[in-house]
Amino acid sequence: MTAAPLLEVRGLTRRFGGLVAVNDLDFQVRSGEILGLIGPNGSGKSTVMKMIMGIVRPSSGSIRLDGIELSRLPAHQVARRGVGLVFQHSRPLNRQTVLENIKVALLPDSLFTLFGDRRIDHQARAIAERVGLGHLLERKPPTLAFADLRRIELAKAIARHPRLVLVDEPFAGLTASEVRELSALIREIRDDGRAVVLVDHNVKSVSALVDRALAMYLGERIAEGSAAEVMQDETVRRVYLGGTLQASAARAERSATKKARALIVENVGVVYGKAQALQDVSLDVREGEFVSLVGLNGAGKTTLFNAISGLVPYSGTIQWAGEVLRGRSPAAIARGGVVQCPETRELFGDMTVRENLELGGDHLDPVERKRILAYLFELFPILETRRAQVARTLSGGEQQMLAIARALAMKPKFLMLDEPTLGLAPVILETLSLALERLRKESPITLLLGEQNVTFALPHADRVYVLDHARIAWEGPPSRFEAEGAAHFL
Fold first, then answer.
1. C-beta neighbour count of 318 within 10 angstroms
2. Do residue 297 and residue 226 come from a single domain?
3. DSSP states of 42-61
4. What is the pLDDT of residue 72?
5. pLDDT class for 247, splitting at 50, 70, 90?
6. % of the chain surpassing 90 pLDDT
7. pLDDT tens digits for 37-59?
8. Between the CA of residue 76 and those of 90, 112, 189, 338, what are the distances in Å?
């Protein structure tokens, strides 16, 4: 492309205290082009979007729109210069109609212009028709489907005819058909000659839509080019998939077990408001089996764990040990042996390591609780040296070990580990890996591991499920993942 770039970003850096969220980032976007920012959770993508929009001020670097510097301007002045933002979370005026929501976005910066202006009414109706809301003009947002709320956000963003449109997580919570429809609308915006910068965790949808992709990791650019080129880049694949997967799966796969299915999930669906978090999800885990559920951030792993634990309402059926879990309280499910170690850890920060562990084993008799505590200190020796230290003063890796140990203190029959490796150093990952292998050898525990880190997930798995955009996309043994399942994961 030979046209001069509309947006030029040079040396963009943002520090939050000692954390460098974005580091010396350069990129350009031209009119009539869609650039997709991709990368694992925590890569800095949303921070980049906020800096362009003026919501977050850069620590250093330049953001130029058609030669005009934006990096020191507040958000409202950035918007006046031709930048529109489609927010990740819909923020309509719930007491106003669809038409009135779009009119608000069209109002000029004047206290003397009212809704009654016929030009504004005509423009609002035209925009509504364009984004597929023409038949819903008199409806109010609380009565709309989730996809239509996203259309309102898109309508508001293009109402002032921006030259650059920033689109943050447009596909979260949408069905496959809704993703296709919204993608078509974004292409129309591009075809009008506008530049579009788009961020989403649904990598396949982004790849199918964008003209170019820029992959980020830990705040830095690691690859740029066409979507196909970027997703085949060795560094990008290592970031998402951990490198050569088959070589990492050192544990020999066991033959198919003949044991009974302990956990059975059938056609489970979960809706948050109007967002479809899970759709017709079915899987099973047999007694003593270790199963990995892999998927990118936002795929629905935590939602599935919460449904199994009884923390969120769901459609479909979930059974454990032949008994239906629906209707049981989360406490009753946990007492029955189904225990979740959450991604957020949920430790008691002002209690010591020992006190946190004793709370986990509070239902056991003193002799058994003492035995379990000794075993957990063998499994995670660092916790024994920290036994009198309050949990909030531990490192991130030590807190993760404590969270897993507390879950094990409950003597679970079925343990769900949700993103145990998130943000941990390699040395801690090795400790967790050894602990899981020891559990496999020394206990009858059944385990379901939810992970983005495929390199960690595969060696510990008898079978693997890929959860993609709220659905199970693939199931099979670890040895076939790279050849068959990785495409669904990416």
1. 22
2. no
3. TSSHHHHHHHHHTSS--SEE
4. 92
5. very low
6. 46
7. 988 766 888 899 999 999 999 99
8. 19, 19, 22, 50
Among residues 407, 414, 400, which one has the least CA distance to residue 456?
A: 400
Asked whether 55 and 233 are in contact (CB, 8 A), the reply is no
> Burial level of 214, CB count in 10 A (0-12/13-18/19+)?
buried
What burial letters (b/e) apply to 273-286, b meaning 16+ CB within 10 Å?
ebbbbbbebebbbb
Give me the numbers of helices (H) and strands (E) for the chain, helices first please: 19, 20
Domain enclosing residue 381, as ranges: 245-489
Decide: helix, strand or coil at residue 122. helix
What would you report as the CA-atom Rg of the chain, rounded to the nearest whole angstrom?
25
Q: Please indicate, yes or no, if residue 207 is contained in any of the structural domains.
A: yes
**Do 226 and 314 share a domain, yes or no?**
no
Sign of the torsion angle spanned by Cα atoms 46, 51, 54, 58: positive
Q: What is the mean pLDDT of residues 308-325?
A: 95
**How long, in residues, is the chain?**
490
User: Does residue 2 form part of some domain?
Assistant: no
Last residue of a domain, one of 206, 241, 276: 241
Count the domains in the chain.
Answer: 2
> Which parts of 208-305 are beta strand (E)?
212-217, 220-225, 261-272, 275-286, 290-294
Q: Which two tokens stand for residue 120?
A: 């504004």
Element at 409 (helix H, strand E):
helix 396-409
Q: Within this chain, do residues 215 and 263 fall inside the same structural domain, yes or no? A: no
Which residues 6+ apart lie within 8 Å of 385 measured at CB?
Answer: none
Whether 1 is in a domain gets the answer no
pTM above 0.70, yes or no: no
Give the C-alpha separation, 86 to 149, whole Å.
11
Cα torsion through 10, 14, 20, 24, rounded to 10: 10
Q: Which of 302, 267, 304 is nearest to 282 (CA)?
A: 267
Can you tell me which residue has the tokens 């199931």? 475
Q: How far apart are the first and last CA of the chain?
A: 27
| Residue-wise pLDDT tens digits, 380-439 | 888 998 889 998 888 777 888 899 999 999 999 999 999 888 766 566 778 888 888 888
